[in-house]
Amino acid sequence: MSDHLEIELKLDVDPHTPTPDLRSLPGVAVTVGPIVEHLDATYFDTDDLVLAENRITLRRRTGGHDDGWHLKRPGTDLGRRERQAPLGTGAETTPPPEIVEPVTVHLRGRSVAPIAVINTVRHITELRGDDHRLLAMLCADQVTARSLLTNGTSRRWAEWEFELVDGDAALLAEAENLLRAAGARTASSASKLARAIGATPTRAPVATLGKKASALEVVITELRRHRDQLIAVDPTVRDDEDDAVHQMRVATRRLRSVLRAFPQVIGGDQPTRIDDELRELAAVLGVARDAEVAAARYRTLLADEDPSPALTAALVDEQMRRYRRGLKTSVAAMNSSRYFALLDDLDAMIAEPTPGPDAATTAAAALHSAVRSSRRSVRRAERRLAHLPAGTEEWTTAMHAIRKKAKRLRYVAESGAAISTTRHRRIAGAAKTIQSTLGDVNDAALSRAFLAAVTARTTDPRDSFVLGRLDAREQAAHDAALQAYVAVSGELLD
Questions:
Q1: CB of 134 within 8 A of CB of 263?
Q2: Which domains does the chain have, with CATH numbers?
Q3: 116, 119, 337, 416: least CB-packed within 10 angstroms?
Q4: Rounded to an integer, what distance in angstroms lies between the CA atom of residue 135 and that of residue 27?
Q5: pLDDT, tens digit, for every residue of 75-117?
């Protein structure tokens, strides 16, 4: 299996239009071809075309240099992400698990079936540099497509695809100018599949809220935004990409913050049920995330020390083992019917919300009320803390409560960016500062407890010395973060 970013230019042309001399393009020393390939591809999707709706294509293609299963999905502004897996034996109609894993969040346990058959006669011209490095390929395609959908039709057309390999953006831009001058024009469809099956529903972008938007509109807009972020980051968690677990956990927390901040805007029992499920999902993700943060923390702390391999294993390797176990548990949860049901319920509530008592309230008034209520919650928690002896278990619990409430305040104040005021943004910034400083206090305290447990098991005097130094550094970090919190508490929320 392989993954890569596909950067290509697709243009329509009249049949049998001759290709221009590509040797005039910058950096191109020689062209090779044309190389003729006969490609036969079957495209797959669900009954309701959920992959097409999300600009994803799944196909099984034979013939050519890259035959196999192909999954293409949105990537960056430059191009699409493509995953390839080899063909199996025979003419399988069930894609291999590894090829559909990135789109599990869309399929949600549903099977796929053929929706189109596309046959292409391809003439490939390779563009190579002085070092014979492959810079790009021009594919001149004669396409015959047949839709397998109800009332589907057959179509024929010609197109050019110019795909970068080791070339750069300048080559792509010059190639477009050259190909358009030769008679090419903007493609009428984004892909062969789109042209084969015709118009399909697409997920609409998040709407821009006006100043007179209702509370229901702002809540649905925010829920859609964070739902889309959760769906977008889902494949990166499965691929164990850097910071992916953290981003998915943040998306779940932001969704919960919106539901809790505006409790009377959406009616029925859906908000409570979804909030409960999101809390469970965040807890599952938290195991891997906490271990990931701890491993990075000890890696940094040990960088300036001389630990034994055993101590590095006890601090860093053990956290990484916890991370891998937590990630495995997280992915298992993300493959469960419970997770799919959560996503379906979230989609249904966003598509057809039940208006609550405050649904018609203006968004500005609802946001102001939610921020005010959340600020009061932080203030009450801070007043309770002021009456507790520092360092006690009750004091630690109260500090943790303030941190969680400040995080919620931050997320609420950041909601509805289009209607938020400078004051709301200032409050969000203050809440973030409190959340961050108290997070540092908590992390240092937990680290000291873990270091003490490791010290109790250590028999090497040199490692004991290193652990003592680490504990001192963590105590200093704890005290500095606590002082930073004291400096901003109360004042920034006035």
A1: no
A2: 2-197 (2.40.320.10), 204-349 (1.20.120), 362-494 (no CATH)
A3: 337
A4: 8
A5: 766 678 889 888 876 566 788 888 999 999 999 999 999 999 9
